[in-house]
Every structure is written in C-alpha cells, then in structure tokens.
Amino acid sequence: IAGITQAPTSQILAAGRRMTLRCTQDMRHNAMYWYRQDLGLGLRLIHYSNTAGTTGKGEVPDGYSVSRANTDDFPLTLASAVPSQTSVYFCASSGEMNTEAFFGQGTRLTVV
Amino acid sequence: GESVGLHLPTLSVQEGDNSIINCAYSNSASDYFIWYKQESGKGPQFIIDIRSNMDKRQGQRVTVLLNKTVKHLSLQIAATQPGDSAVYFCAENIGYGGSQGNLIFGKGTKLSVKP
C-alpha cells in the first residue's frame, strides 16, 4: 500500500508559470489537505476537502486552487507562480473524525 | 487570533536520557491533539494523539500529557535514542466550516540526541 503519493518530488518553476502539484491516496480517506512548510513557520493549511466534490479554504489560500473530482486525487494548482510560493508542499489525508492525518513525502517547489 | 506554539525551538539531550517537548495551545475549543515527528526530507509521521477528555496517554517509549487548565501539551520520550533526532510538531484539531479534522501546527522543536 503506497499511502499518499505526491508528484513531482521537486520542481524549479519560472515566475508567472502555471503549475499543478499532484496528490493521490489509496486509503479511501474522505478528507484531504494541502499544507505548505516554511522554515520558522511550521506547516500551514492551504486548502482542504472533506469529501469528493467539496473544497474549502485554509489559512493561506491566496494564489492556490484545488479540485476534488474523486476520492483519491486532490491536485493543487498555482495559476501564476510567484517567488513567495517557494516552499515545501505536503498533501495529507484522514479518515474518521479526530484521527491522525497521513502525509505524503512532499514536493519541494522553487519559484525563480 | 488563536494559535499553537512551542516553548523551545531546539532541544539537545544525551542518548539514554528522557526528553520532554512542550507545546502551548490557545484554542479552548480544540478537542484533539497530535504529536508528529519529521525527519529531514520526509513528511510528518504520526507519533501519538490524545483527546481532550484525557490527561495522559502512553505509547511505546512516548507519553503525551494534556493540561487543559493551562492549555499545555507535552511529549515525553523515554530513553532517547539517536533515531529520535528529528523535528517534533504538536498539532490541534480545529474545524473549518464544519470540516472533520483540519490540523493547526506549532512551529516545531528540533530534538538532537548526543551519543
């Protein structure tokens, strides 16, 4: 069982370009999340999805969009990347209420 | 606003000693807390959790204590080993618009174990 798979592992992106970070889980979890991790700031929630077909905004949603067409996939899109979006991005999923979230290995994104 | 924070950004301990990592939270409505361990280049890994109706929970070599009166959470690691070296995050579960489990993370404590 793979758990959560993120792609790409790392990416260097020119400012202004569009980029989609992919996330797939095989645990049939209802809820999925995107976090960004920056040194000194910990992990901050970007967007979440409670179930397929629904999404919501987290702490730092500006500049990002998500979709949840099915249970397994939760892509994160940067419509027009800016250098401040340089970060490590983690996708996560959770099953029942008040259970732990499982994290992917992260995508290291550098916007230049 | 309300946030989860940590008292110490770094902690250095001798191998074999016990480690205590502290965390303060300010959201009184939070009812579920988790400790995660993150090794370099990897995603956060679940260690132990505790619900607000409990004061203490034990796992293998780890214990989490919850003091709701002062809104304090701690992680105790017994007989710390070199493999315990990592960054440790506490997280609290708050809801966004009724969502089931969005976690708000503290900024992390780096644990270094000296051989």
What can you see in these coordinates?
The complex is a heterodimer of chains A (112) and B (115). Chain A is mainly β. Helices cover 0% and strands 48% of the residues of chain A. In chain A, the strands form 2 sheets. In chain A, strands 2, 4, 5, 6, 9, 10 and 11 form a 7-stranded mixed sheet that branches. Chain A has a 4-stranded antiparallel sheet with strand order 1-3-8-7, with no helix packed on it. In chain A, a hairpin with a 7-residue loop joins strand 9 and strand 10 (102-103). The mean pLDDT of chain A is 93. Chain B has strands at residues 4-6, 10-14, 19-25, 32-38, 45-51, 56-58, 62-67, 72-77, 86-94, 102-105, 109-114. In chain B, strands 2, 4, 5, 9, 10 and 11 form a 6-stranded mixed sheet that branches. In chain B, strands 1-3-8-7-6 form a 5-stranded antiparallel sheet, with no helix packed on it. The N and C termini of chain B lie far apart (41 Å). Classes of the chains: A mainly beta (112), B mainly beta (115).
Q: What labels would you give this structure?
A:
heterodimer; A: 112 residues; mainly beta; 7-stranded mixed sheet; 4-stranded antiparallel sheet; 11 strands; B: 115 residues; 6-stranded mixed sheet; 0% helix
Report how far apart the termini of chain B are: 41 Å
Largest two-chain interface: A-B, 31 and 28 residues
Percent of residues in helices of chain A comes to: under 10%
Uncertain spans of chain A, ≥5 residues at pLDDT below 50?
none
Q: How many separate helices of chain B?
A: 0
Low-confidence stretches of chain B: 96-100
From the N-terminal CA to the C-terminal CA of chain A, the straight-line distance is 36 Å
What is the mean pLDDT of chain B? 86
Largest sheet of chain A: 7 strands, mixed
Helix and strand run of chain A: EEEEEEEEEEE
The percent range for helix content of chain B is under 10%
Q: Can you lay out the helices and strands and say which pair or pack?
A:
The complex is a heterodimer of chains A (112) and B (115).
Chain A: E1 4-7, E2 10-13, E3 19-25, E4 31-38, E5 42-49, E6 56-57, E7 64-66, E8 76-78, E9 87-94, E10 102-103, E11 107-111
Parallel strand pairs in A: 2-11
Antiparallel strand pairs in A: 1-3, 3-8, 4-5, 4-9, 5-6, 7-8, 9-10, 9-11
Chain B: E1 4-6, E2 10-14, E3 19-25, E4 32-38, E5 45-51, E6 56-58, E7 62-67, E8 72-77, E9 86-94, E10 102-105, E11 109-114
Parallel strand pairs in B: 2-11
Antiparallel strand pairs in B: 1-3, 3-8, 4-5, 4-9, 6-7, 7-8, 9-10, 9-11
